[in-house]
From TrEMBL:
It comes from Micropruina glycogenica. The keyword Zinc does not apply. GO terms for cellular component: cytosol. SUPFAM superfamilies: HAD-like (SSF56784). Keywords: Hydrolase. InterPro entries: HAD-like_sf, HAD-SF_hydro_IIB, HAD_sf. This is HAD-superfamily hydrolase, subfamily IIB. Coiled coil: none annotated. One of its GO terms (molecular function) is phosphatase activity. The keyword Methyltransferase does not apply. It comes from the Bacteria.
Length: 278
C-alpha cells in the first residue's frame, strides 16, 4: 500500500462549500494509484453530505472525535453528561449562537437557529460562508433541551465574550480553537474535549491499518489542523492558512479555487503530472 492521506474539508478540499471537480478526480486518481485518502474534518458526520464522504476511504470527523472506515466506527467520543450540561449553561449565559454537533445529528435551539440564519445568510459574514451556509443550516435539528442531546463538539458563531474566556471556565476538560471563519472574530470558536484533536483520530486509523507514520500525509489550512500536520510524516498547508500551520508544513500549495490538492498530489508523487506541451 502507498501513502495514507488525510484531507481537511473547509478551506482545503472545498471553498465555501464548493468542491472543485479537479479535487474529486485527484482523490480518485490517487486511490487508483494505490493510496488511501480519508476526509479529516472538524465537521461532524451529520454535516458532511453522504455523497462527499463516499469519495473517500474513510472519515475522521468532529476534529478527531469520530472515526469510520469501511462502515466500521472505530471511535466515537462525546461529551459526558455533566460537561454537556455545563457548556450549554455557559453558552446560554453568554447568549451564544451555537450548534451541538454529533455524528448522527446536529442540534440548535429555536432562538439560536434564527440568529444563525441571519448571521450566515444576511449579515456581514454571509460572504464568508457562500454555499456552505445551506450545508450547515439544512441538516440542523431543533431542540428545546440542548443539554440532553448527545454531542462531540460545539461550534459557536457568536458570544458576548471571547470564546477563549468561556474556555477558561471549562478548563481543563474542554478546549477551544478559533473559528476557521476569521471574519467572525474572537467571539466565535470550536469547543471540544481537550484530549481530542485530528491527530488523535489519525492515530486510530494508523493503528487500525498498522501504518508507518512516515507514510501519513495531512493537508489543512486552519487552527484545528495544527496537530495533524505536526503528527504526519508529511504535512501540507494551504496558502493563506494560519501562520502557525504554514510554519509547520513541509509543503505549501494553492487554495481550492486554484485546485491546490491537485498540486499537492502531483508534488508528492501521488498522481502523475499531466504532460504539458513544450
Amino acid at each position: 500500500m502507498g501513502k495514507t492521506v488525510f484531507i481537511d474539508f473547509d478551506g482545503t478540499y472545498a471553498h465555501n462549500g464548493v468542491i472543485p471537480a479537479a479535487h474529486v478526480e485527484a482523490v480518485r486518481r490517487a486511490q487508483r494509484n494505490g493510496h488511501r485518502v480519508l476526509l479529516c474534518t472538524g465537521r461532524p458526520k451529520a454535516l458532511v453530505a453522504a455523497d462527499d464522504v463516499a469519495v473517500f476511504d474513510g472519515l475522521v470527523a468532529a476534529a478527531g472525535g469520530y472515526v469510520e472506515v469501511d462502515g466500521q466506527v472505530l471511535a466515537d467520543r462525546r461529551f459526558p453528561a455533566y460537561l454537556a450540561a455545563r457548556i450549554v449553561e455557559l453558552l446560554e449565559a453568554y447568549r451564544g449562537v451555537y450548534i451541538l454537533e454529533g455524528p448522527d445529528a446536529a442540534y440548535v435551539t429555536p432562538a439560536a437557529r434564527q440568529r444563525l440564519i441571519d448571521l450566515l445568510t444576511t449579515g456581514e459574514h454571509a460572504a464568508s460562508f457562500g454555499e456552505a451556509a445551506d450545508g450547515i443550516l439544512a441538516p440542523l435539528l431543533i431542540t428545546d433541551d440542548p443539554a440532553a442531546e448527545s454531542f462531540a463538539k460545539v461550534t459557536c458563531f457568536d458570544l458576548l465574550v471571547p470564546a477563549a474566556r468561556l474556555a477558561t471556565e471549562l478548563a481543563p476538560e474542554i478546549g477551544v480553537v478559533p473559528s476557521s471563519i476569521g471574519s467572525l472574530g474572537d467571539k466565535a470558536g470550536e469547543f471540544f474535549l481537550a484530549e481530542v484533536n485530528k491527530s488523535v483520530g489519525i492515530a486510530v486509523v494508523e493503528r487500525h491499518f498498522g501504518l508507518d507514520r512516515a507514510d501519513i500525509v495531512a493537508i489543512g489550512d486552519s487552527h484545528n489542523d495544527l496537530e495533524m500536520v505536526a503528527y504526519a510524516g508529511t504535512g501540507v498547508a494551504i496558502e493563506g492558512g494560519v501562520p502557525e500551520l504554514l510554519a509547520l508544513a513541509d509543503l505549501v500549495v494553492p487554495t481550492p479555487e486554484q485546485a491546490g490538492l491537485v498540486v499537492a498530489f502531483e508534488r508528492l508523487g501521488l498522481i502523475d503530472s499531466p504532460v504539458r506541451a513544450a
